[in-house]
Amino acid sequence: MNAPLRLGTRASALATTQSGHVAAMLRERTGREVELVEVTTRGDVDRSPLASIGGTGVFVSALRDALLAGEVDLAVHSLKDLPTGAAEGIALAAVPPREDPRDALVARDGLTLGELPVGSRVGTGSPRRAAQLAALGLGLEITAIRGNVGTRIGHVEDGRLDAVVLAQAGLSRLGRDGEVTEVLDPFQMLPAPGQGALAVECRAGDEDLVALLAALDHPSTRAAVTAERAVLSTLEAGCSAPVGALAEVVEGDDGEELWVRAVVMSTDGALSVRMSATGSPGDAHGVGSRLGQEMLADGAADLMEGPQPEGSDRVGEQHA
Ligand SMILES: NCc1[nH]cc(CCC(=O)O)c1CC(=O)O
């Protein structure tokens, strides 16, 4: 009889929901018992801007420390929170099927973006979302916010904000997608690389577990997020502006094709470089990094990060 697998998770409602979902999949596909172990991270306790305590990486590194210390056997993260660099001794053992990767608007009175009057106050902590909202030219007043999903929706409920922008995936995992007033089309709002996907990590040396967790992997989701993260790491190496990227496996003339769209923007949304590429899902990393290189050559390298809204920090969804 095998001992139950210990699954490390952040304690937030979103994290425990995501982890519970992975635990259920694991029980179903492998017959193994799984127990959740809550790991408190500095990002959950400390309300100061995430930049000052190390970015979204603080959520991830506490779970990785617990893995390396042998306190847990596997850990579940929101994939978009994973830093792009490799982690010593850690394997990305599975990328389960992705939820809806798009961003969603939760606005007062059922309003859509286009219906929000000029001057409406829209909350987001993400430079990527702020820049893309500004680029729409709707005259919205974009306000920096932090906090969990419930807190952020609460700002609309209590009338302090007219709307907030959140990941659709988080809202549907929490059963709050009924509050979404518009799911934003990626033509207007490209999501963060990895948004809507989960990452299942374990110790790289734990070969039996690496093999077992492969049962949870979804190859086209893995290809998509691999391409998106390759765009991000290429752009991060060449500029500091916010990045959106979305890859999808689509049916092409010669079978499956990977279609990648990406944007990099000045923080005020005034300047952007937007490009797309297609390639083979088996070459996801190559497709994404070549796209990133092309974007750098096409001006992304000249996009400077402007002044940041109070309480926000750089790169992806550090605070979203
Ligand atoms: N930055 C926090 C974070 N990390 C993952 C999600 C949502 C779920 C996901 O994207 O998989 C969120 C909240 C949000 O952006 O609204």
TrEMBL record:
Chemical reaction(s) catalysed: 4 porphobilinogen + H2O = hydroxymethylbilane + 4 NH4(+)
First-tier enzyme category under EC: transferase
Keywords on record: Porphyrin biosynthesis, Transferase
Pfam families xrefs: Porphobil_deam, Porphobil_deamC
GO MF annotation list: hydroxymethylbilane synthase activity
Superkingdom, natural source: Bacteria
Keyword Cell membrane: no
Location of the Porphobilinogen deaminase C-terminal domain: 224-296
Required cofactor names: dipyrromethane
PROSITE patterns on file: PORPHOBILINOGEN_DEAM (PS00533)
Record note on quaternary structure: Monomer.
Family affiliation: Belongs to the HMBS family.
UniProt-recorded name of the protein: Porphobilinogen deaminase
